[in-house]
Amino acid sequence: MKKLLITGGAGFIGSHVVRLFVEKYPDYHIFNLDTLTYAGNLENLKDIENKDNYTFIKGDITDAEHMNTLFAEHVFDGVIHLAAESHVDRSISDPLAFIKTNILGTVNLLNAAKTVWKDQMDQHLFYHISTDEVYGSLGETGLFTETTAYDPRSPYSSSKASSDHLVRAYHHTYGMQVVISNCSNNYGPNQFPEKLIPLSINNIKNNKPIPIYGKGENIRDWLYVLDHARAIDLIYHKGKNGETYNIGGINEWTNIDLIHKLCEVMDTKLGRAKGESAKLITFVKDRAGHDLRYAIDSSKLMNELGWEPSLQFEEGIEKTVDWYLANEEWLNNIISGDYENYYQKQYSER
Ligand code: NAD
Ligand code: TYD
Q1: With CB atoms counted within 10 Å of each terminal CB, which end of the chain scores lower, N or C?
Q2: CA angle 310, 247, 141 (to 5 degrees)
Q3: What is the DSSP letter of 185?
Q4: What is the maximal distance between C-alpha atoms in the chain?
Q5: Residue 2: CB atoms within 10 Å
Q6: What residue ranges are annotated as transmembrane (predicted)?
Q7: Domain total for the chain?
Q8: Could you report the per-residue pLDDT of 270-325, keeping only the tens digit for each?
């Protein structure tokens, strides 16, 4: 049985990746390593937590000693590394937390892997999950490709860029087999309601203002989270050693247009008069250093590995709204902070 370590598996994207691998690959044992920060929620995985090929490990990637012990104990065949501090606004108010987890944490994993994989580097793979934000900000035209020069502009994107470089350095210096993917903005079920789409869904539902930074003219390229998880599966199994793959939704929206679309869907789902939810739109002070536009050219992934996004945005956003409306308890537990007790309740007696 192959042993695969997925870090950050209790978070938004990680939980979808863990589920996909646990269900699709019964011959893999999936270890989900997560320290359960405010963003880590084991309720995301309650449908698979008792599967035989799944183990949750509570651990912090900034704890080098624990990482070394863990890798020595299990000798993982591969690692898919998603654990990170992930929100730009938080990185503006607390950059150091991002340096610690995203840079030091990644180096701890690389070191632990290097120590136990050293004589058999060709038998193991370190797959680092990154973001398109490392490429900086686009003007009105153009797309990020895998050869676009790095130009990160927020503490978050700088910390991710740094970890990407370190992963490449371990490939070139120590011969570690690595792949990296840089993905655009994800949306879908289980996203923490601090990010634009779930925050807005929650506020619309509760008749609270929808805060739009600046004039809402910033552009993001949105991808449904399961399409990202499918791309990760493909890249883990078929990606070429040392390569980078960009993943994007071919789906650019200004924030204001996206929120108007979301308001329309919410009006229909909540039985409100057309235009009712949009009245909640409130323009607020812009984010410091707010990147204008992100957009990804995914042609390498599409042409070389045969990936393509499966969902149109209209379908994806409807599915997302349906999920949040059907999972009120999940949302309420997060907002009240009760989700943090799930680990104690479910795991303390195991
Ligand atoms: P998230 O914030 O929802 O989840 C992050 C997870 O990492 C949480 O479960 C958290 O508990 C865990 N974690 C944080 N610090 C840790 C530590 N020190 N040790 C162990 N676990 C820790 O993030 P997400 O949106 O699911 O993003 C996952 C990855 O994908 C990140 O690396 C992020 O940079 C990348 N990414 C995200 C997006 C996006 O739109 N969300 C887009 C491209 C790339
Ligand atoms: P976010 O979901 O935080 O992702 P990222 O900063 O990684 O792109 O934000 C998406 C876009 O929405 C970004 O341009 C900032 C903007 N935004 C708002 O206008 N209001 C909000 O309350 C939030 C959280 C984001």
Answers
A1: C
A2: 105
A3: E
A4: 66
A5: 12
A6: none
A7: 1
A8: 999 999 999 999 999 999 999 999 999 999 999 999 999 999 999 999 999 999 99
- Pocket lining: 232 vs ligand 1, CB cutoff 6 Å: no
Q: Is residue 283 part of a domain?
A: no
Q: Is residue 349 part of a domain?
A: no
Whole-number Å distance, alpha carbon 317 to ligand 1 midpoint, is 21
- The residue to mutate among 158, 183, 184, 255, having the most atoms of ligand 2 within 8 angstroms of its beta carbon, is 255
Task: Give the pTM.
Answer: 0.98
Length of the chain: 350
The pLDDT tens digits of the residues spanning 54-106 come to 999 999 999 999 999 999 999 999 999 999 999 999 999 999 999 999 999 99
- CATH value at residue 228: 3.40.50.720
Distances (CA, A) of 123 to 26, 114, 118, 126, 250: 20, 12, 10, 11, 35
Q: Which two structure tokens, joined as six digits, stand for 166?
A: 């370190």
